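Help needed: design a sequence for this.
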């Protein structure tokens, strides 16, 4: 049976089980949108293509499925790039489909022509320019396979307008056959035996759990390993939710804004068991100072990550869940109460320092600060009121770090944030993607006044598609993290970090037909947060926080994780 390329594309998406697409139409994808009109797939029209990529990313992180976004050629494709790069660094499976100028016009600076595959090559796991309509079905099947297998990541398929319009006989493509792409899932038995011996003989072991634990679905195996061998667990930003935050063995998040308990434990340990983590500088600080007394076991499905930043004494390439299943029977059971555990308890007592809110960088009196809330207190109330079943997304900045430090729930895929790329403007559209994928789940977006304004237009998307996200804007009138860095490292010279005058966010919410709230006093905090959570549909809460509040600890450049500024 003959079909147009656009129809084949939509059929392939349906065959892959795609339920929702986030996109924005244009001339080069008219045929695809025409075919989508007759499809069972739900299309969510965003108001900017970047938001489509972020929404597909949030959908993928929350559901574990492949997220899909669609944009036209030229600026449509280039507007996706930040979202694709965000997914790439954080290993999120999305398939981005872009329109392209007709094949015969490529290379002639045609209208809305851009080398989309060339532009996105560094930030995709793989990408395709479709040159023959007969290859389209095979390419799409390969794209989804590559995105979801091995180390997950984004794949882009660039479809010229004439390919979408061309007709060919369509049959479902055969099974994927990619001889050069064979991810290793089972760890080598010898390396697993070496790892078990190292764990059994270590006196001060620490598990360093990254986002790979969540990607592989290995949180139960991680808990089993920690409890059997009584090993403390530190997580990266991406690993939050992989281990219960209130567990006696939980150290919290490590890194330059991590908790003292995690940073000190890693510095003093004699064995690091790294699971699905990249050893990036935000987590490790200077590599020369990271875990200086420790051997390193590194488990990762991507062999390129092992040894890239830190030498692994025992490297294991494989899926973390499968590796831990093979490792667990070989690990000896231990009792809690060793000298190491006593030290861990001491480190945890010192973590309280991180929770203090200090107002630096301004000379206001206590009276001047009235009407400005403690952001730590605000975050605690939001998280407690939202509850452990809620999915929390964040933007990037101080609010992100406060939320990461205070999140205590054991809820994999429930704390969603841009890690490696640090993308402001991510949190709100990502929350919309989460809500589209899990419509009956409470979704809370914690943002800053800077980040929220980067994709504020998506309020229209939320209203149009009944995506009832609860947004909390920690409003300090400035780019808080930039101001904090300027305080510490620029001698208090604040250059272009002030955002005032800010808009009245409640009025903007009402203009889009949403419910708006403002919180300025502590006495209103708990009641207003609860009211916003219980409000049907979209709610926007403007929370006025102290503009002098700091994120602690701060690890200065060149200093080890245990040499932070804590107050």
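Sure. Designed sequence:
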């Amino acid at each position: 049976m003959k079909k147009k390329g656009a129809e084949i594309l939509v059929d392939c998406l349906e065959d892959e089980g795609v339920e929702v697409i986030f996109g924005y139409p244009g001339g080069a994808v008219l045929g695809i949108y025409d075919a989508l009109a007759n499809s069972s797939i739900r299309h969510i029209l965003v108001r900017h293509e970047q938001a489509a990529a972020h929404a597909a990313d949030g959908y993928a992180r929350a559901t574990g499925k492949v997220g899909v976004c669609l944009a036209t050629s030229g600026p449509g494709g280039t507007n996706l790039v930040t979202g694709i790069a965000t997914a790439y660094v954080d290993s999120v499976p999305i398939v981005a489909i872009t329109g392209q100028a007709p094949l015969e016009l490529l290379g002639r600076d045609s209208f809305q022509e851009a080398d989309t595959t060339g532009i996105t090559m560094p930030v995709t796991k793989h990408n395709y320019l479709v040159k023959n309509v007969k290859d389209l079905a095979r390419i799409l099947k390969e794209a989804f396979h590559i995105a979801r297998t091995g180390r997950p990541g984004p794949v882009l398929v660039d479809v010229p307008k004439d390919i979408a319009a061309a007709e060919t006989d369509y049959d479902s493509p055969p099974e994927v056959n990619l001889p050069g792409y064979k991810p290793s899932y089972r760890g080598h038995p010898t390396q697993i035996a070496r790892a078990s011996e190292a764990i059994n003989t270590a006196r001060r072991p620490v598990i360093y759990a990254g986002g790979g634990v969540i990607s592989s679905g290995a949180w139960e195996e991680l808990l089993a390993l920690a409890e059997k061998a009584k090993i403390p667990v530190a997580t990266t930003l991406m690993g939050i939710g992989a281990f219960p935050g209130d567990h006696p063995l939980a150290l919290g998040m490590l890194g330059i804004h991590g908790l003292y308990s995690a940073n000190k434990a890693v510095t003093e340990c004699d064995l690091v068991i790294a699971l699905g983590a990249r050893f990036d500088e935000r987590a490790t600080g200077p590599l020369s100072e990271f875990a200086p007394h420790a051997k390193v076991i590194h488990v990762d499905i991507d062999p390129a990550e092992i040894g890239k930043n830190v030498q692994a004494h025992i490297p294991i390439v494989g899926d973390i869940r499968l590796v831990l299943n093979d490792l667990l029977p070989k690990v000896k059971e231990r009792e809690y109460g060793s000298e190491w555990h006593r030290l861990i308890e001491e480190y945890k007592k010192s973590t309280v320092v991180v929770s203090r809110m200090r107002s630096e960088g301004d000379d206001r009196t206590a009276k001047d600060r009235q009407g400005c809330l403690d952001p730590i207190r605000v975050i605690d109330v939001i998280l407690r009121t939202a509850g452990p079943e809620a999915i929390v997304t964040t933007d990037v900045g101080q609010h992100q770090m406060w939320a990461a430090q205070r999140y205590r729930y054991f809820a994999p895929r429930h704390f969603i944030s841009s890690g490696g790329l640090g993308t402001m403007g991510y949190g709100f559209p990502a929350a919309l993607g989460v809500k589209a994928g899990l419509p009956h789940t409470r979704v809370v977006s914690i943002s800053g006044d800077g980040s929220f304004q980067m994709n504020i237009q998506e309020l229209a998307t939320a209203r149009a598609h009944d995506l009832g996200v609860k947004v909390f804007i920690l409003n300090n009138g400035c780019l808080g993290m930039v101001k904090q860095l300027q305080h510490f490292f620029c001698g208090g010279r604040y250059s272009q970090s002030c955002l005032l005058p800010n808009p009245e966010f409640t009025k903007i919410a009402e203009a889009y037909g949403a419910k708006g709230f403002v919180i300025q006093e502590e006495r209103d905090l708990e009641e207003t947060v609860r009211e916003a959570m219980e409000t049907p549909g979209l709610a926007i809460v403007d929370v006025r926080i102290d503009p002098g509040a700091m994120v602690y600890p701060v690890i200065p450049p060149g200093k080890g994780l245990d040499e932070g500024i804590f107050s």
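The domain at 2-169 is CATH 3.40.50.970 (Rossmann fold).
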